UniProtKB/TrEMBL annotation:
Name recorded for this polypeptide: Protein arginine N-methyltransferase PRMT10
Organism lineage string: Eukaryota, Viridiplantae, Streptophyta, Embryophyta, Tracheophyta
Listed GO biological process terms: methylation
Organism, as annotated: Rhynchospora breviuscula
Gene Ontology MF term list: histone methyltransferase activity; protein-arginine omega-N asymmetric methyltransferase activity
Keyword Glycosyltransferase: no
Length: 427
């Protein structure tokens, strides 16, 4: 089944989000810029940073390698800390598509949970752990890295499942469970599926604690890409030009009033603003009619089998047939879906899918990531766009992503135009 919910409106903010952790960023009709990660040292009081990241000794060498260069305190301040606040949890808990998918996946497949041991990775408020207990689990181990663990315990107690659900505060890489589990459940997905790199911790948990015949919730995930039309690229170029005009006026005034020529900084200033306006992905919930070509699947992940190395860099060769005449590819949109299928040995009785694709009813808090194409590519129905796609983890911080798209337009006549390269960061 494909979970849908009508009439739900996500909270929209009037200014760009300052949090690194997943949350609905600022949303206005012009697709606002999503701010980069910020480091807030004051948040460190919530967390024992000595346990923030895994080590090779605990059996999670893959996760440790991925984050070996990351300072534990900085990683917490950039990422974990935002999940320790109830306002952030409420925003995710208010996403009806997200909630319905997990609720139905558990409640309609109680045979996976009845009498079984379950591990909830990144339990947050604890709601998934509570649902697992209500579905008949014998024991649920709910692991949470932040002080949200205290609120999870309160909810567990209030809902009368404290004898079943045990909450651990600490990183998944460092927690030790008393037994192997039959099920691992986790809501680990970030923007465009892999931003945040939380799936590393789920893989670690699977390799350490899941029984050979165990199941994963979700069991599969897919990444998608499609060409879209929008006036956003023109608007962002106008914003960039306005910023540069303002800079030139500033340079002239500074020299006239203070005798200092600032023009040597013009190139660096422009590079900063090009990254801000054109080379950073945008968050949006698109309308389906903005898609002008057939979506293509970039990657399918089997959560029982995936490795950290497999998801560290994603590459794909895509062919996107255009189905709109006299249009422009202003950007590409990326999204994901996940499925709750169980396993081959122990399949789900009622499969559930959660999609974050364009939705006329408003979609999910994940929305879609929009990658601007500059200049836009003029296309007609019958044309094809051949896309070489690569996504890798940012060198500066492993939870962010860098994307390269090389687009080659093949006209309906068969003629191919020179390729256009687009490089974008997901921050």
């Amino acid at each position: 089944m494909r979970v849908r919910s009508n009439g739900h409106q996500l909270r929209r903010r009037e200014s760009p989000s300052l949090e690194f952790g997943r949350t609905s960023p600022a949303f206005i009709d012009s697709f606002p810029f999503t701010s980069p990660a910020l480091v807030w040292n004051s948040f460190l009081v919530q967390f024992d940073t000595s346990t923030a990241m895994g080590t090779k000794e605990n059996g999670c060498a893959g996760s440790a390698q991925a984050s070996a260069q990351v300072d534990k305190g900085v990683d917490f301040a950039n990422y974990f800390c935002t999940y320790g606040y109830l306002y952030h949890q409420k925003e995710m808990l208010s996403d009806r598509l997200r909630m319905d998918a997990y609720f139905h996946a558990v409640s309609r497949n109680k045979h996976h949970f009845r009498g079984k041991a379950v591990l909830d990775v990144g339990t947050g408020s604890g709601i998934l752990a509570i649902w697992c207990a209500q579905a008949g689990a014998r024991k649920v181990y709910a692991v949470e890295a932040t002080k949200m663990a205290d609120h999870a315990r309160d909810l567990v107690n209030q809902n009368g499942v404290q004898d079943v659900v045990q909450v651990f505060q600490g990183s998944m890489e460092d927690v030790t469970l008393p037994e192997k589990v039959d099920v691992i459940i986790s809501e680990w997905m970030g923007y465009f599926l892999l931003r945040e790199s939380m799936f590393d911790s789920v893989i670690c948990a699977r390799d350490r604690w899941l029984k050979p015949d165990g199941v994963m919730y979700p069991s599969h995930a897919r990444m998608w890409l499609a060409p879209i039309r929008s006036g956003i690229t023109d608007q962002k170029m106008e914003d960039l030009n306005c910023a540069m005009n303002d800079w030139h006026s500033f340079v002239d005034e500074t020299e006239a009033h203070y005798g200092v020529n600032m023009s040597v900084l013009t190139k660096a200033y422009r590079e900063e603003h090009e990254k801000y306006y054109l080379k950073t992905s945008l968050w949006c919930n698109l309308d389906p009619n903005q898609i002008i070509g057939s979506p293509a699947m970039i990657k399918e992940i089997n959560c029982l089998q995936a490795t950290v190395d497999e998801i560290r860099t994603i590459t794909a060769q895509l062919m996107l047939p255009i189905n709109a005449d006299r249009s422009r590819i202003s950007a590409y949109a990326g999204w994901f879906d996940v499925q709750f299928k169980g396993s081959e040995q122990n399949p789900a009785k009622d499969e559930v899918e959660l999609t974050t694709g364009p939705d006329a009813d408003g979609g999910t808090h994940w929305g879609q990531q929009v990658f601007l194409v500059n200049p836009p590519i003029r296309v007609n129905e019958g044309d094809k766009v051949l896309v070489s796609f690569q996504m890798s983890r940012a060198k500066q911080y492993h939870r962010l992503m860098d994307i390269e798209l090389i687009s080659e337009l093949e006209l309906s006549s068969g003629k191919r135009l020179p390729p256009i390269t687009t490089r974008v960061s997901i921050e």
